[in-house]
Amino acid sequence: MQTNLRVKTWDSVEGEQSMQTGHIPSWQAMIDRMRETDLETASVLDFGCNRGGFLPFLYKSKPFHFGVGVDIAEDSVSYANTAKGSLPLRYGHNDILEYYKNSFDVAFSHEVVYLLPDLQAHAAQIRSLLKTKGVYYIAIGEYAENPLWERWKKAVDQFSPVPSQTWSLQQIARTFADHDFEVSVRRLVCDDFLPYDPSDDKYILSPMELLEFMTRYMIFFRMVKKS
Question: Among 29, 42, 58, 188, who pairs with 105 as Cys (CB 3.0-4.6 Å)?
Answer without folding.
Answer: 42
